[in-house]
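Narrative of accomplishments. A recurring question from our advisory board has been how the design workflow behaves on a single, concrete structure rather than in aggregate. To address it, we present the structure tokens for one chain from the evaluation set, followed by the sequence designed for it. No filtering or post-editing was applied between the two.
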């Protein structure tokens, strides 16, 4: 079993696919910067890394070699912090490209947008074969859902066993492009739609914009988990710029109802050995 079969209470998303240092000078772009940001955030309480890699020009990449390099460096520098890669298309990659990077990396975890990997009314079952292969390979797939409608669709696919259980989900509140700031109220629709899903459900939320903290606190209160970081938001709740990703994690943890009890039970135990 991979250690991402259970999501951590807090997952760090330090950069995403689109932002650059023009957005914030502390946004990590290189593998070394991403590992350093992950290490600092882990010290503040982040339990896992949601990783994006960039090419030589700083663009979003699904290069398996870059991901393998990042995972190896994380195993060396922060061995107790597991890595979830992304298959985000960002307008550059096809579903076949997305499947190829997962097969080329064999990560312990991966986030996959349902709408990208399996577009509605897709004529073949290649996506279903991919999801079942990943489950058999012990790769924890977190399904990225952008609306309650997608939650309903996922529930139907799960009911037909087209997508295997257990399920990990991420509810995306708000949007990056076009800009749509998230609000805590947006979570309600996702939770209502999720009532049709199987009981074995592990979910988290992320939120774009200045209300990120309030949205994630609402997710924790509702029994979910949180993905936080510069991928979604660069500021503290009062609107002042955060100096780095670790500061966002530290501020969020201080606001949790039982922040003093964020202990080893919310983190994932150290690797027995390096994955590479």
């Amino acid at each position: 079993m991979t250690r991402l079969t259970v999501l951590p209470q807090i997952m760090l998303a330090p950069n995403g696919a689109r932002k650059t240092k023009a957005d914030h000078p502390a946004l990590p772009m290189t593998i070394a910067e991403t590992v350093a940001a992950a290490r600092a955030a882990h010290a503040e309480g982040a339990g896992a890394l949601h990783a994006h890699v960039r090419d030589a020009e700083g663009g979003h990449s699904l290069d398996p070699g870059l991901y393998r390099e990042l995972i190896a460096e994380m195993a060396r520098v922060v061995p107790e912090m597991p890595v979830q890669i992304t298959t985000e298309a960002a307008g550059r990659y096809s579903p076949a490209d997305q499947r190829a990077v997962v097969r080329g990396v064999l990560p312990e975890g991966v986030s996959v947008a349902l709408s990208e990997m399996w577009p509605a009314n897709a004529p073949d079952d290649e996506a279903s074969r991919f999801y079942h292969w990943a489950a058999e390979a012990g790769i924890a797939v977190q399904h990225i859902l952008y609306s309650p409608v997608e939650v309903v669709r996922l529930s139907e696919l799960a009911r037909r066993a087209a997508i295997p259980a257990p399920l990990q989900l991420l509810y995306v509140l708000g949007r990056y492009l076009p800009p749509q700031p998230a609000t805590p109220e947006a979570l309600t629709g996702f939770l209502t739609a999720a009532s049709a899903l199987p009981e074995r459900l592990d979910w988290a939320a992320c939120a774009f914009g200045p209300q990120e903290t309030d949205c994630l606190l609402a997710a924790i209160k509702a029994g979910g988990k949180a993905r936080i970081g510069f991928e979604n938001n660069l500021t503290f709740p009062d609107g002042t710029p955060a100096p780095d990703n670790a500061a966002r994690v530290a501020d969020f943890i201080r606001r949790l109802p039982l922040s003093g009890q964020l202990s080893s039970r919310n983190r994932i135990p150290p690797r027995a050995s390096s994955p590479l």
